[in-house]
Amino acid sequence: MCLSNLSSLRLLDISDNEFEGPLPSSIVYSLKSLAYVSLASNHFQGSLSFPMLANHSNLQIFELSSYNQQHINIETENPPFTPSFQLKIFKVVNCTLNEQTHTLPTFLYHQHDLRMLHIGHAKMAAKFPTWLLVNNSRLNYFNVSHNFLTGPLEFNATSRFHNMDTFDVSSNLIGGEIPQSMGTNFPHLITLNMSSSLFRGSFPASFGDMTLLNNLDMSHNSLSGSIPPEFGRNNVNLRILKISDNNLHGPFLPAKSNFSNLLSLHLANNNFTGNFSNGISNSRELRMLDLSNNNLSGEIPSWIGSFQSLTFLILSKNSLQGLIPLGFCKLVELSYLDLSHNNLSGTLPNCFKFSYLRFLFLQDNQFSGPIPVSLAKSHDLLTLDLTKNKFSGQIPKWINSLWSLRILLLRENKLGGTIPLNLCHLRNISMLDLSRNSLFGSIPSCLKDIAFGKLKLSNGMGMGIGIVRIDWVSRATEFAYDPNTNEFVEDSYNEMPFAWYEDQEANFVSKYRYESYKGSILNFMSGLDLSCNNLTGDIPPEIGNLSGLLSLNLSKNHLTGPIPKTFSNLSQIESLDLSHNMLSGQIPSELVLLYSLSVFSVAYNNLSGKTPERTNQFGTFEATSYEGNPFLCGPPLHQNCSPGATIVPQAEMESASDGKETDFRDSFVWSFVGTFVVAFLGVILYLYLGFYFFIPRRFRK
């Protein structure tokens, strides 16, 4: 509190620390000479009344942000005030603004010298403040993202905001169409973000007039039509383009686009059609290309090899066909490759160098032949998904060279042979799916050496396996304090870090459902699926030591022997399926200690004895979990387990029941026929005797 005595203090910057407790608002109120106040990026709590700063006539920069939106409330309307200051920067992020009304601060009507306005994640609900732009002709940074602003967005066709270089209205409720004149309204924009704000209508052709544009994000809207040819002819400075998740169609880029400096192109989840557009062929600096979930057809062009800096290539969920071109062999920087859900065939070129590859998704195609040996040098590979292809041969012995692997999915191929012991050297695996192949032999006991969920390391690109971090560059405006003039002057544009986080996705069968696990959840999922093969022999007791497993599926094999008692050590298990094998013996009573178990099946085996006690999770399992085991008894089955009772196999009971029904039916028929014959003869005899004994002789003739 002694800071309140520094009456001549002009700059107070305690940003980006770990301060907590009450917001030091009283100190700010006391220091009337303050020109620069930054309390941003701490853990403060409490409230701040902006009217208390009304007489801070020197105030030029005010910054306040919180790590938790619930902790700081800023009141600007009560009591009403007219400020004596002219702000250059007003930055309020992740705070609750005007908690009762959520209105835009009215003191901003009196500001005419703003250079930066950033009100983000502030729960602000108001109509879009076009007047702010008109009143502040020197404004160059405008960010009102993540609020509840409504539209429409309207600009006079003749208006020019020449100083504006950053314009961010993302994640609002603006709606309506984007003004067709916007490109001429903001001719010097460097960063434009209008994502997730309910915009519809066409893509403005005037965007081609933004010749300085560096970053453009129009994703997650309802834009329709095609990308106009005017866009891209003059946008040679464009580095990042995101227009994914819209309803755009036609070629994914105009044929004569000139994006020579493009680093990142995100066009996923649209309705783009046709072959690969030549409009991208001159983007030789490209590092990210995402065209997933469109209607692209034809073959992948060989000239894709000209993108030698390409790090992320995502072409999944299209109708691409043919072979992978030899041009891929030039993509030596690839770290993330997703060609899944297409009609691609053949195999990966042997010349391909996967030295930096971390994520490879080839599932749901027509790839055939052995698992490509070109993968053997992918020592940094974290995820390998070859599900639903026609790969044949054995699981290669060189698989142990992929020592960083966390997810290995080989489901539904034509793989044969035994499970190689080299697979056990992949100690970091958390999800292993070898199901629906033709594997035979026994289950290796050395699988116990694999982590399966015990390892919780951030082996991904900065954020763990499920979230991929992409660091590139953008531009930002900085301000410097000049002590000679007591002014804050705008610095030149500086290269600053610009990060994206991309979720990766993996599919795995758990709890009878083919689930999709995406993003950070992948760091917590673990499973082993060996189902639908021809595996034989006993289940190794060592499998029970995989305490990190959430899902274990060994169903539909030819496994014999008992269920290991060590399965009671699977403390995290949620789904356990041992059905459709030839397991024998009793179900270990210790399994009732599996408190997380929600799906359990030992159906269609040769198990005998009493079912586990119906306590804990086992009280929820129905008869279907045990059916097909003729010598099992006890609830929820209807077979009696009382002392001295003979357990009759269900098949024999049904056979005996059928025999009794047949005997009864035959006895009934013969007895009925016999009775009918006796009765008939009795009637005849009665009539005959009556004729001779009761009718007078003179009438007999």
Q: Can you characterise this structure?
A:
InterPro entries: Leu-rich_rpt (IPR001611), Leu-rich_rpt_typical-subtyp (IPR003591), LRR_dom_sf (IPR032675), RLP_Defense_Trigger (IPR051502). There is one protein chain. With 701 residues, the chain is mostly beta strands. The chain is built from 5 helices and 48 strands. The model is unreliable at 457-463, 472-477, 492-499, 648-662 and 691-701 (pLDDT under 50). Helix content is 9%, strand content 27%. Among the domains are: 1-138; 304-463, Leucine-rich repeat, LRR (right-handed beta-alpha superhelix); 518-642, Alpha-Beta Horseshoe (Leucine-rich repeat, LRR (right-handed beta-alpha superhelix)); 652-700.
Biggest β-sheet description: 22 strands, parallel
Q: What's the count of strands?
A: 48
- Global structural class: mainly beta
Calculate the mean pLDDT score and round it.
86
Name given to the CATH architecture of one domain: Alpha-Beta Horseshoe
CATH superfamily of one domain: Ribonuclease Inhibitor
Any low-confidence stretches, pLDDT <50, length ≥5?
457-463, 472-477, 492-499, 648-662, 691-701
- Distance from first to last alpha carbon: 146 Å
Proportion in helices: under 10%
Number of helices: 5
Shape: globular
Beta-strand residue fraction? 25-35%
- Please state the CA-atom Rg, rounded to the nearest Å: 38 Å
CATH class of one domain: Alpha Beta
| CATH fold call of one domain | Leucine-rich repeat, LRR (right-handed beta-alpha superhelix)
